[in-house]
Design goal:
The structure is a single chain. Helix content is 38%, strand content 23%. It has 168 residues and is of the alpha+beta class. Strands 3-2-1-6-5-4 form a six-stranded antiparallel beta sheet, with helices on both faces. The longest helix has 38 residues, at 114-151.
Length: 168
Amino acid sequence: HEQLVAQAETLVGAERVALLTVRRRGDMAPVASRGFSREALRDMRKRRGEGVLGRVVDTRRAFLLTDTHDDPGLDPPTDEAEEIRSFVAVPIELADRVYGVMTVNSARPDAFSERDLRVLGELAKHASAAIQNALQFEQERQIAETLQDALLAEEPPEVEGLEMATLY
């Protein structure tokens, strides 16, 4: 997650980047970020369909806004230091579901273009493959660990006059 955030920051020159994952209950929470305060990250916690990021998850479509002042429907940040004037939000999809959403933000209007949207879309596709591989590896590791634990002998019985041990 941290690598993905760092790559997005570098590729488009974003001042702030966050990666939110969709949890089983349907809510989204930031798992990696750069440039955001704790309060701003707490405010990002939303349900699917709620706010711009929630709509990106529901529609599975990237979103570019060049100037938040042109869209009166957006909730302005409560802290002026956290002002966002332009941003891009891109879904990260795994096979049959949306894993999360990555958002890059700037206090400057027109900081991002259609090109940035395409670049971040490609980054999200590559990240999706890497995340899928990591999740599959973790699942296989857990299965192997369970099998190994099942194969291990329990503590050998204590028999007077004998010293027993197990070797795996």
